Amino acid sequence: MKTFFTILALIFSICLQAQPTKLVVRAKAKDAKFIGSSIGGAKVIIRDALTGEVLSQGITEGSTGNTGLIMKDPHERYKPITDEQTAGFMAEIEIEEPKFLTIEVIAPANQPQASVKAQTQLWLIPGKHIDGEGVVLEIPGFVVNVLSPQTHEFIKPSTIKLKANVVMMCGCTISNGGLWDAEKMEVQAILKKDGKHLKTVMMSVQDKVNTFEADVDIKEPGTYEAIVYAYDDRTGNTGVGKVNFIVGE
């Protein structure tokens, strides 16, 4: 009888041994492609949902994915829109029993002024991998960087050139008539002088993709702020960039 219970205890012990379990996490820009190496990736943090303990973390690596699969082909149930090159983060977590996880993604990781946090929760079962396409979190918005004027730049009263770089959250190109069509997006600069609204100016792509421009006459000395926003009413994507500059003699 003692031997029987010893064997039973051994079997029970083996059953509860930690098993390495794979979990793939990806970040996909809303109305665009996956967030990968070309824009610095997405930061992934996987936690025990009950204790907050970090079980794995890293950066998504790889390409933005296959444009045809993601943006053009009809999507079918169980048909993946990723391939082997598509950006993702592979975690391998050792667990003895089902564990409830919180998955957090911050993206794009190298654009802190534009990064968005998205999260979800799920149960991870020992030995039951969640790989392939894995868990995909959607990241809404645009990355907006004001190029001109520069931060705290001193400018003489004149016609100044407002410039802003606007891209999808995956870095995908915005151009006139392109797949992400600049002419169907609203990009404007809200100008403030000494803290008060001065004017709002429409910006558009001229000579260079992703670069929205506008000429603005500024004659009065003072401290100025330009708030550049991008908005697509078809998707609800939004993004904002800000800069402060000074006009003086």
UniProtKB/TrEMBL annotation:
Keywords: Signal. The keyword Signal applies. Residues 1-18 form the signal peptide. The keyword Signal applies. This is Uncharacterized protein.
